[in-house]
Amino acid sequence: MEKKKRxxxxxxxxxxxxxxxxxxxxxxxxxxxxxxxxSVVFCVALLFAGAAALFIFFFTGAYxxxxxxxxxxxxxxxxxxxxxxxxxxxxxxSFYAYTGIVxxxxxxxxLQSAVSLTVLGSPLKIMQFIFAGIVLLCSVVIIxxxxxxxxxxxxxxxxxxxxxxxxxxxxxCVNWFTTRRQKSEEETEEE
Length: 191
Description:
Order of helices and strands: HHHHHHHH
Helix content: over 70%
Distance between the termini: 29 Å
Radius of gyration: 19 Å
Strand content: under 5%
Number of helices: 8
């Protein structure tokens, strides 16, 4: 059961990282893609994800487990998707704030990885702390709409999305190699 939770957290971070990279690249490289279109795609994706969560909840018998909240998450995503489509102008107007929140979530996940590397005694913890600090700082600039930075660099949110996704994936690779190395050292000591 614990392994499933770990994989799920890893899956969320990988998915968020890939979405950030794709969104950042699309917004930077394509003038035809606008925030309203991406907002509609996001709301429709929420609808599908919510429906999938509800299907999985009933199909897998998750209703038998009292601590499984996939039904609640599915309903929440469905409602957010519907509300977003109804008020797409509001969602599009706040699109960059939402991207800042997504980057913030990735930054916090990276910070947790840095703490884990510290406990494991990895010298790569410094790199992970720097990555997390960069992403956290940039996400706060976007969420708080710091004009001092955002005005001279109008593509700052797009760059932040792209960089936060890339740094997150690099950090995941670092964690994977560190964990593998430590496991191999422990196996060598046991022999």
